[in-house]
Amino acid sequence: MNLQYKEGERMAIIVNLDVMLAKRKMSSSELAEKIGITQANLSVLKTNKGKAIRFSTLNSICEALDCTPGDILEYKK
Amino acid sequence: MKVLGKRSLSSAINIFLMILLISCIGCLTYGIFYISMNWNKLMEINVHLLLCGVYLSGIISLIMIIEFMGIFQSLKKEKIFDNENIKRLKISYISSIIIGILYVIISCVIINTGLGKIEINYYILSFFAIIIAMVFLIFGVGLIVLTEIYKKAILYKEENELTI
Questions:
Q1: How far apart are CA B77 and CA B11, in angstroms?
Q2: What pLDDT is stored for residue B38 in this prediction?
Q3: Per mean pLDDT, which range of B7-16, B18-27, B46-55, B134-143 is the poorest?
Q4: Positive or negative, the Cα torsion across B13, B59, B145, B73?
C-alpha cells in the first residue's frame, strides 16, 4: 500500500497555532519576533500552506508557547 | 565571470540576441521584396517550395530568438526559476523541432529536384540541409530535457520556500 504523499493532495496535518496563541494570549507578530521568522512565514504555517517545518523552528515555537509539538500539530483524516 | 545579474554574460548575450533579431527581421523583410520581384523567374515549383520552407524556418527562428531573449532578460534580473521561463522553453523546443522537420522536408525537395541530374551540388545541399535538421532536432530534444529539469527545480524551490 503506497502511502506516499502526492502533490496536490489535501494535507491531513493541521497546524493549531491560533489555538495555542489564544491560550497563551500572544499575538502572531509577537511569536514571529520571538522565534525569528517573518510574519509572512508564520502566516503560511497558520494557514496550512506550508510544505514542511524544520525541527529548529518547531523547537522555537514550542519553547515560545511552552507546549509540545502535539499541541500544535494534529492529524485529521 | 559573472553569469547572472546586470553587466554579466546574460546581459551580453541579450544584446547579441537583440542584434541578431534586428538582422533577421532585416533579412526576412529584404527577402520578401526579392522573392516577390523574382517569383516568375523561378520556374521550378520545387524552388518555390524551397524558398517557402526556408522563409518559414526563418520566421520560426525569430520566435525562438524572442523567447531566448526573454529567458536571458529574466537571468539578467536574477529571476532564474520563473514559471515564465518554462513557457518560453516550451515554445523554443516546439519551434526547434518544427524547424528540424522543415529542413528534413527541404532536403527531400532538394534531392527530388536533383534526381536524374548528374550535378553533385544538389546532394551536397541536401546533406547540409540534413545536418541543419539534425542540429535543430537534437537541440529541440535537449530543450525538452532542460524544460523538465527546470520544472523540477521550480517545484523544489517552491517547496523550500514553504519550508518554515
A1: 9
A2: 77
A3: B46-55
A4: positive
Distance from the Cα of A25 to chain B's closest Cα (Å) equals 23
Task: Note whether A51 contacts B163, CB cutoff 8 Å.
Answer: yes
CA distance A70 to A57: 14
Residue A75 near residue A12, CB atoms below 8 Å: yes
For chain A positions 13-32, those within 8 Å of chain B (CB to CB) are none
Mean pLDDT, each 10-residue run in order, chain A (77 residues): 71 90 94 93 90 92 95 90
**pLDDT tens, position by position, B112-135:** 777 666 666 777 888 888 999 999
Residues from chain B that touch A15, judged by Cβ atoms under 8 A, are none
